[in-house]
Design brief:
By secondary structure, the chain is mostly beta strands. It has no helices and 11 strands.
Length: 121
C-alpha cells in the first residue's frame, strides 16, 4: 500500500488542524495505520494508531485527549484531528501502515512522506 500524508500548515497555539493519510492499493481496510512525528533534532515518535476496522485506537500520552485518529475505509483515508495544538507539537507528521498492530516506530511496512505542522506561540 502507498500512503500520502497531507494537511500540515502553520497555526497558532490553541488552534486545530486535521491531517489526512490517503492510501492507494487494495485491501487498505485490512491494515493498521499509525501516525508519527519527528521534530527537528529529535527521533521519530509514535503519536496514534488505529485498527483496521477503526474499532480500537491508542495514543501517546503527550497527545491523549487532544488528538483523535479515525478512518474512512470507503475513502481509503485515515485522519488525525489535532486540537488544542501546542508549540511542542511542531514536527513533520508521517503516517504508516502494516497488517500488524504496533505502537512503536519500528517494523511498519509502508510509510508516507511527511507533512509539516508548525505551531506558533
Amino acid at each position: 500500500v502507498q500512503l500520502q500524508a497531507s494537511g500540515g500548515g502553520l497555526v497558532q497555539a490553541g488552534d486545530s488542524l486535521r491531517l489526512s493519510c490517503a492510501a492507494s492499493g487494495r485491501a487498505f481496510s485490512s491494515y493498521v495505520v499509525g501516525w508519527f512525528r519527528q521534530a527537528p533534532g529529535k527521533e521519530r515518535e509514535f503519536v496514534a494508531v488505529i485498527t483496521p476496522s477503526g474499532g480500537a485506537t491508542y495514543y501517546a500520552d503527550s497527545v491523549k485527549g487532544r488528538f483523535i485518529i479515525s478512518r474512512d475505509n470507503a475513502e481509503n483515508t485515515v485522519y488525525l484531528q489535532m486540537n488544542s495544538l501546542k508549540p511542542e507539537d511542531t514536527a513533520d507528521y508521517y503516517c504508516a501502515a502494516d497488517p500488524i498492530f504496533r505502537v512503536t516506530t519500528k517494523g511498519w511496512g509502508s510509510w508516507g512522506q511527511g507533512t509539516l505542522v508548525t505551531v506558533s506561540s
